[in-house]
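Exercise 7.
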Amino acid sequence: MNHFAAFLLLCILSCGAASAQDAGPSGYKILQKVSLPGDGGFDFLTVDSDNRRVYITHNNSVQVVDADTLKLIGTVDNVPHPHGVVFLPDLGKGYATSGDPGSVIVFDLKTFQHLSEIPASKDADVIIYDKASGHVITFDGDSKNSTVIDPATDKVVQTVNLPGSPEVAVSDGQGHLFDNLESESKIIKINAQTMKITKSWPLAPGVSPSGLSMDVENNRLFSGCHNQFLVVMNAKNGKVVQSLPIGKGVDGTFFDPASATIFSSNGDGTLTVIHEDSPDKYTLVENVPTEEGAKTMAFDSKTGHVFLTTAQREPAPTPTTEDPKPKRKIVPGTFHLLVLGK
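Solution. The predicted structure, written as tokens, is:
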């Protein structure tokens, strides 16, 4: 190969690499990748945009990252099988669900030390704070129930049975909760004061819903379903407004009212970006490339950045009679945070 041909090939490769980094129609692309310690499993992550903290459930702990410097600034240790986190800055406390044995770890937002442990139910998973009732509420998947906690006393107020396995829930801040029932492919509406179910609506064509978010002002729910649909539902009457295609393996959605944008984080290595043209019309913008396994997300309302976590995995072991669907193990030292932005 002569010098000119070699130079030309280098230019072509360089241009290809540059194109791969260019943002698509949404403007979103990967800005940074940040390695974090630990090789265990991981689930939800949550952003405190005001106080510049990212809470990441990982490796039997909650890792706390500075949202600006992306440095690990603390760890809440001894949170077995962690799932979700909610923070109450006015009380100086955070709450993290521990799926096994099934409890909620209360921790100090400054020192990250345990303050108490509240019994919940096995597979305590999603956790939210409802401003209208003043309660912290868990949704416990395998147990098919919800645990209601008074953060003033850190005592359980009640445990409520649900008609299916709950997934992500949201509050409208006006006395209503909405929850995806993954096993039933439905959304239920709950009175936040009494915890009584007032409505139950089918999500068809959506099946097996996971991530849920809400446009509170326009009363629209966005449910990410495992048959690769994002279903838009009217939260007043349960009518399905529209369904749009998303990536495979969704576990998180988020609605940003400032840009009228819905995000869906998908385990197949995509972030689906959808624009709300009006409360009754939605447009798919693009599927932004991320990385395989990055299925949960958090949004920083200050910067517009999207945070995702993932890790490399080994090839799947050979299936056996005892274990027909063996899980792929995480490659040690590969867990990391992805930051996407414009």
